[in-house]
Amino acid sequence: MSEYANAPSSDARFYAVRLKPGQDVVKELRAFVKANSLKAVSIVSVVGSLNTALLRYANTGVWAEVSGHFEIVSLVGTIDEKGEHLHISLSDRTGKTIGAHFGEGSAVYTTAEITLAEFTDLSFRRELCPQSGWEELVVEPRSSI
Questions:
Q1: Rg, C-alpha atoms of the chain
Q2: What distances in angstroms separate CA 52 from CA 38, 104, 111, 133, one per listed residue?
Q3: In angstroms, what CA-CA distances link 144 with 4, 114, 119, 141?
Q4: What is the value of pTM for the model shown?
Q5: What is the Cα–Cα distance from 29 to 35, expressed in whole angstroms?
């Protein structure tokens, strides 16, 4: 039997927010989660633009800031009360697209229209995974917390 056969399911509550020029996407997502006491959040969709972003490219462990005018092609991830795991894809004026782990230090250029889902029956937390060496997602039914 698959280890996922008994994965917990949940109802969800949806939120929609718009960030304005100059706001930091990660800081604002953290603030929104905290202000609403959300326990298990997934990004549903994001459309907008950035003029700076803090990225960590695959298998580097090094954060790099990119500057310019970028369209947000996608932003995905999970967020809990104490942390997040976010990946972003950005395209420049020529359509060249880059993708990486996304961190605090972005600035919205014109807008960021974000929809979020909170899984009302689950809690997310992160703990060190001996296989990956990173703090990884742990999903638990909220009733067990």
A1: 16
A2: 27, 10, 13, 29
A3: 18, 30, 15, 6
A4: 0.91
A5: 10
Per residue in 57-112, pLDDT (tens digit) is 998 989 999 999 999 999 999 999 999 999 999 999 999 999 999 999 999 999 99
C-alpha of 111 from chain center: 17
Virtual CA dihedral for 65, 49, 39, 77, nearest 10 degrees? -70
Q: CB–CB of 40/122 below 8 Å?
A: yes
Report the distance separating Cα 8 and Cα 142, nearest Å: 10
Tell me the pLDDT tens digit for each residue of 40-58. 999 999 999 999 999 999 9
Angle among Cα 99, 95, 91 to the nearest 5 degrees reads 35
